[in-house]
């Protein structure tokens, strides 16, 4: 999408964060295509519902969220369900970073000020986005970020969602308008392909094309270490080794909350990097993206207290899938991840495709590995 025509509309794209979320921000925009339906709301540019057929042909809700959109506005603490995360996703140590010799101190909102999570106290998830366009198969939201939470400069962000046969495509774009600034956007959708959050995803099969993860400390802030996980410990697979299809339970007891670094060179094209299969419904989701990494969180902190349109979420009752850059890369120049964008430079662009179909129900990891090996021949 061209930036120049949009600049004329800047006065109309003013971001809103008010104590009471407006009814317009909670209006649903419903899209449909062959084998898939979805709905979105402007508050957080958020995915509210996603329905696909299971192996028996029954339509299933696979996205976690609230049945009533008012639930997002009424949250006492952010769930981030289905929202766009920005200006910088995941964690930044101490809420500080330096760009061109200038140190910025942004709002901290986790662990008594030890880090910034998902853009700060009021991130993109808690903002009222504008609707730029909408039709039966696509909707585009926009947000004018006037230095929110202490980030340098102004940024124009766009979130486009579109449906085609069995596929949801998200395109997140951000333009630095007047100063160099770090940008790292993602979507924070939680899924349960079994459509039942009272049951866990532990028997589902996960395949991630990544042999390394970002090492983190006790509060999940990156340490700078990159951990190799594709090997074995004696006869045991590393619990984070999903380079071949494996049961999600392999990551027990702690579960997953890790940034997987894909095994592919730059420049990055939109290619398949993750596959997830439900043992209960036969629904398969394949994720194709241009991003260099993906955060996978298996809802280990859920305790049955959170109510969603799929019911109360039990521990390991879902997984969040977040295609993005290397987390806290702005604090680790040794990684050589350029996450700073400047006026006049190419914009930040995050493309992700979620492709849904069905496979044999109940097929375990071994059968899936054999099928994957045949497909790769």
Give the SSE map.
Layout: H1 3-7, E1 29-33, E2 36-41, E3 46-53, E4 59-61, H2 70-73, E5 83-85, E6 91-93, E7 96-99, E8 102-105, E9 115-117, E10 130-134, E11 138-146, E12 154-164, E13 167-176, E14 181-182, E15 186-191, E16 205-208, E17 210-216, E18 222-228, E19 232-233, E20 236-237, E21 246-247, E22 257-262, E23 271-277, E24 283-289, E25 293-297, E26 307-308, E27 311-312, E28 319-324, E29 340-341, E30 348-358, H3 365-376
Antiparallel strand pairs: 1-2, 2-3, 3-4, 5-15, 6-9, 7-8, 10-11, 11-12, 12-13, 13-30, 14-29, 15-28, 16-21, 16-23, 17-18, 17-22, 19-20, 22-25, 23-24, 24-30, 25-28, 26-27
Textual characterization of the structure:
With about 375 residues, the chain is mainly β. It has a single domain (about 10-375), classed as Beta-galactosidase, Chain A, domain 5, CATH 2.70.98.10. About 5% of the residues lie in helices and about 40% in strands. A 9-stranded antiparallel sheet has the order 10-11-12-13-30-24-23-16-21, covered by helices on one side. The chain has a 7-stranded antiparallel sheet with strand order 5-15-28-25-22-17-18, with no helix packed on it. β3 (about 45-55) and β4 form a beta hairpin. The protein is globular, with a radius of gyration of 20 Å. Residues about 10-15 have low confidence and may be disordered. Belongs to the aldose epimerase family. Pfam families: Aldose_epim.
């Amino acid at each position: 999408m061209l930036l120049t025509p949009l600049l004329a509309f800047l006065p109309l794209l003013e971001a809103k964060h008010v104590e009471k979320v407006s009814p317009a921000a909670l209006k649903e925009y419903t899209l449909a295509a062959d084998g898939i339906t979805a709905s979105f709301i402007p508050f957080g540019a958020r995915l509210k519902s996603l329905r696909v057929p299971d192996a028996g042909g029954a339509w299933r809700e696979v996205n976690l969220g609230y049945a009533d959109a008012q639930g997002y506005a009424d949250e006492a603490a952010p769930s981030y369900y289905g929202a766009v995360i920005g200006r910088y996703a995941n964690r930044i140590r101490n809420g500080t970073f330096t760009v061109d010799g200038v140190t910025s101190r942004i709002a901290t909102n986790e662990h008594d000020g030890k880090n910034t999570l998902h853009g700060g106290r009021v991130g993109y998830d808690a903002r009222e986005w504008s609707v730029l366009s909408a039709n039966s198969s696509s909707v585009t939201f926009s947000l004018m970020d006037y230095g929110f939470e202490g980030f340098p400069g102004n940024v124009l962000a766009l979130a486009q969602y579109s449906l085609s046969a069995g596929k949801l495509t998200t395109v997140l774009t951000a333009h630095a308008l007047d100063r160099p600034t770090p940008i790292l956007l993602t979507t924070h959708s939680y899924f349960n392909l079994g459509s039942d959050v009272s049951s866990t995803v532990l028997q589902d099969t996960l395949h991630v094309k990544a042999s390394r993860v970002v090492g983190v400390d006790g509060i999940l802030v990156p340490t700078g270490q990159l951990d190799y996980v594709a090997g074995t410990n004696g006869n045991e697979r590393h619990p984070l080794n999903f380079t071949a299809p494996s049961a999600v339970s392999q990551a027990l007891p702690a579960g997953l909350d890790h940034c997987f670094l894909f095994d592919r060179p730059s420049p990055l094209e939109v290619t398949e990097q993750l596959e997830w299969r439900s043992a209960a419904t036969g629904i398969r989701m394949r994720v194709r993206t241009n991003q260099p990494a993906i955060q996978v969180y298996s809802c280990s902190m859920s305790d049955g207290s959170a109510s969603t349109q799929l019911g109360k979420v039990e521990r390991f009752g879902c997984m969040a899938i977040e295609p993005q850059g290397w987390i806290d890369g702005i604090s680790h120049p040794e990684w050589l991840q350029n996450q700073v964008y400047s006026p006049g430079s190419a914009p930040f662009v995050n493309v992700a495709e979620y492709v849904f179909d069905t496979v044999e129900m109940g097929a375990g990891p071994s059968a899936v590995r054999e099928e994957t090996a045949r497909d790769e021949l």
